[in-house]
Design a protein that fits this description.
The complex is a heterodimer. Chain A is mainly α. Chain A contains 16 helices and two strands. In chain A, helix 5 packs across helix 10 and helix 6 runs parallel beside helix 10. The radius of gyration of chain A is 30 Å and the shape is flat. The longest helix of chain B is centred in the first third of the chain and has 22 residues. The chains are: A mainly alpha, B alpha/beta. Chains A and B meet through helix 3 and helix 15 of A and helix 1, helix 3, helix 4 and helix 17 of B.
């Protein structure tokens, strides 16, 4: 009669098991054989990946590479291009209009930030307090975003008519305010454009904030109320800190978006009056397309590259600085 | 273990997708003479009415019958400055297309249209072109690279009903710039609309400024087109001061200072502008595209004063794509002769074209300038007289006097770029009451000099 003797010896380690199948399986785990990939999911991945890769390469990445190359060439797309090194960058940097464009873009960005950053937050906070018609308000807030930008721009251009019979001037006339020149005055043109841009883009941000607000734990609000906080103190001490991840991301997105503003000045004022609404993208368009004899594509792409680099550097700095505040 | 069938099918599908995407990148063929026939693509206006398209197809058939070795394919195409170079580089330009006068010399200098001058010289009327009109399509050495097919001169368009509302006689429009200023003031006072308006954006500001400068007896460049004279020619500052006074002293220019060619036509047609300066052939666009009431339309010549005034001219040229080979170029010139110029030189074609246009309610007989000479033009007008449907008697202030006015060609060097500079100047004067005209002109001159230096 044998007796199994408990032993304190450790069981043999698995990878010393001398089986052939185990060795094969281990090899397959470390270095999947190409044949296994082809036999497995490989071709299915290809089917989905290749069209996507092709469209990205063709329509996104290759044009970027082409533009980067064009920035160092003198080309009119017809005759063979010639390499001119950094001449295009020098031309752009020496253009007196560049300073104007950069200042105008900064002016637009600051105005858009002052107007367009807090307003969606306020609207979202107000909407989150409303219980019943929140869906309706969400739809109304998002409606301007749904209208095609060109359509709304042309509508607002009509509303912005500077004569006393213009739509906005008529409304202002009801409350006794004089006719405003809107787009026909260099001092009013940029604020008018910012007003339109904010109206048309705020809805998207409102929806994002609303979704984020819903995720704030109600216990925090209860705790704040217990401590005697009113509505605005609750917003400042509970809502904003809880939303800081979303706020940080929408801030950088807004900066990048406003730095590339083109549609609003292009449609509403064409860069005028007297270049007061010419932005960096308008300048790029002007370099490339405004001359009917084949524009200066080298200068246009050079300025595009410089803008992209500036925005990339700004984003990197921004994320470094806000790392401690972010929630990701 | 997947079946070999699905594996093979997946791989095949991937390859097919790749192949389909690649095939989409293949460019279409240009002209080919594979079977001895030359095929050319010719531009036609987009959105033609059925009858107009049928008429065009009939012309194509007649052309192909007369030229059995040529096949003509139509392509809807409108020349625009912003897409032209891309079209040319991408090979989507038709072999024959039309361009405005103002871009002719620039495209020729850049060799962006074909040199068909030898072929054009063989046409029977090659030497008969009005030299002022022909120069727009000529290279530096005078060879005709593009064929003029229509010409117009700048004019003052005015709204007859606004004139009447202001107590002015619509059959007796102003003949001096002071007269225009007075009339504008009266119109604004009586109706509240802009008495006089001007284009300022999309290079049209510089175009109209140059028009007025020429009418005031000045020029924006020197005689051999090597230097701009923006701050040295007194007429430029004079015109800007005139506009400044109309805007800020009389307040007769309305509230919109960002007009371009299309938007000023819109506002004029809707009765919001008393007078404005533009190309003489605008009647068609105003009536058919902007619903102007023909009874409201009036047109008169630009008032001229000063030492050496003239009227800025414009028009349309027919050009051939630089990608067309020799056979295609020869066929293209034949087509230009047959389709564009026969409408003017051949009585039967002229009558047929006029009849068709009249039946489609398109304007026939809108003011234009002779491409050849006054006699030929008078003959042409007698042919189409039965079909004229524009209010000719409302246009007599223009048609009676336009023949006497000297025609001036547009500035030759960096035309559009200088116009763009002058856009800013005009906009500044009209939107900033304290604009320093001399400083603005000095800045524009400096920038224009850089453009002229680059063009040398």
């Amino acid at each position: 009669m044998t007796q199994i003797t408990p032993t304190t010896a450790r069981p043999p380690a698995p990878d010393t098991l001398p089986t052939v199948e185990f060795a094969q399986e281990r090899a397959a785990r470390r270095r999947p054989a190409p044949l296994a990939w082809f036999r497995g999911d490989g071709p299915h991945i290809l089917v989905f990946l290749i069209p996507l890769l092709f469209s990205f390469v063709l329509f996104s990445w290759r044009p970027i590479v082409d533009a980067a190359v064009m920035a160092f060439q003198q080309t009119n797309l017809v005759t063979p291009p010639e390499w001119v090194g950094l001449d295009n960058f020098a031309t752009v940097l020496q253009d007196p209009l560049l300073g104007t464009a950069v200042l105008n873009t900064l002016y637009f960005a600051v105005l858009a930030l002052l107007l367009g950053y807090p307003i969606p937050l306020v609207v979202a906070v107000l909407m989150s307090e409303v219980r019943r018609a929140r869906g309706l308000f969400s739809a109304l807030a998002y409606l301007p975003v749904v209208v095609p930008p060109v359509v709304s721009a042309l509508l607002w251009k009509f509303f912005y008519d500077g004569s006393p019979n213009g739509v906005f001037n008529t409304i202002l006339g009801w409350v006794g305010l004089g006719p405003v020149p809107w787009l026909s005055d260099p001092d009013w043109a940029m604020p008018s454009i910012v007003l339109f841009a904010t109206w048309s883009a705020a809805g998207g941000t409102v929806i994002i904030y609303l979704a984020a607000l819903v995720g704030v734990a109600p216990e925090l609000y209860d705790a704040a109320e217990v401590d005697g906080a009113g509505v605005w103190r609750k917003v400042w001490h509970v809502t904003m800190p809880q939303l800081r991840g979303v706020l940080l991301v929408t801030f950088i997105l807004q900066i990048i978006g406003t730095a590339q503003v083109f549609l609003e000045p292009f449609l509403l004022t064409g860069g005028g009056p007297a270049n007061s609404t010419t932005t960096v993208l308008m300048l790029i368009y002007k370099y490339a397309f405004q001359s009917s004899m084949g524009g200066d594509y080298g200068a246009a792409t050079a300025l595009s590259i410089m803008l992209a680099v500036v925005l990339a550097v700004f984003s990197a700095i921004y994320f470094r600085i806000t790392k401690s505040w972010s929630t990701t | 273990m997947r079946s070999s069938l699905t594996r093979g099918a997946s791989a095949g599908l991937a390859l097919l997708a790749a192949g389909a995407l690649l095939a989409g990148c293949a460019s279409g063929s240009g002209t080919d003479s594979s079977d001895g026939k030359t095929t050319i693509t010719v531009a036609i206006d987009a959105g033609l009415e059925k009858e107009a398209r049928a008429n065009f197809d009939a012309r194509v058939e007649a052309f192909e019958k007369a030229n059995p070795d040529i096949t003509v394919k139509a392509q809807e195409y409108t020349w625009t400055a912003t897409t032209f170079t891309a079209d040319l580089a991408g090979g989507t330009l038709p072999d024959v297309f039309t361009i405005p006068f103002t871009d002719g010399r620039g495209l020729i200098a850049n060799k962006q249209i074909a040199d068909i001058s030898d072929l054009v010289a063989e046409l029977p009327y090659a030497a008969d072109f009005n030299p002022n009109v022909a120069q727009a399509g000529q290279s530096e050495d005078g060879s005709q690279w593009a064929v003029p097919i229509a010409a117009y001169g700048q004019a003052v368009h005015y709204n007859r009903s606004l004139f009447e509302a202001a107590g002015l006689d619509p059959d007796d429009p102003p003949t001096t710039w002071d007269g225009i200023r007075e009339a504008a003031k009266k119109i604004t006072d009586a109706t509240g609309e802009a008495g006089y308006a001007t284009m300022t954006s999309g290079n049209t500001g510089g175009w109209i400024l140059t028009t007025l400068v020429n009418a005031f007896g000045g020029r924006t460049e020197n005689a051999d087109s090597t230097e701009p004279t923006i701050d040295s020619d007194p007429a430029v500052a004079e015109v800007l001061q005139y506009l400044h006074d109309l805007r800020w002293d009389d307040n007769s220019m309305g509230a919109n200072f960002l007009y371009d060619w299309g938007t000023i036509n819109q506002d004029f047609a809707s009765g919001r502008i008393g007078m404005y300066v533009s190309g003489g052939g605008n009647y068609g666009n105003l009536v058919t595209q902007n619903a102007l009431n023909p009874d409201d339309y009036g047109i008169t010549v630009l008032p001229l004063h000063g030492d050496d005034p003239g009227v800025l001219g414009g028009g349309t040229l027919a050009a051939v794509s630089p990608k067309a080979d020799d056979a295609a170029q020869a066929a293209s010139v034949k087509w230009i002769d047959f389709y564009y110029l026969a409408k003017i030189t051949d009585e039967d074609v002229a009558v047929e074209t006029a009849k068709l246009a009249a039946s489609l309610d398109q304007p026939v007989g809108a003011p234009e300038l002779p491409i050849f000479n006054a006699e030929q033009f008078a003959e042409y007008q007698s042919w189409i007289a039965p079909y004229v449907n524009v209010p000719l008697d409302q246009m007599t202030p223009y048609t009676d006097n336009s023949g006497d006015q000297p025609l001036i060609a547009e500035p030759r060097t960096a035309t559009q770029d200088v116009y763009a500079l002058l856009d800013t100047v005009v906009q500044s004067v009209l939107t900033d009451q304290n604009a320093d005209i001399d400083q603005l002109l000095a800045d524009a001159q400096a920038q224009a000099e850089a453009l002229y230096a680059k063009a040398k």
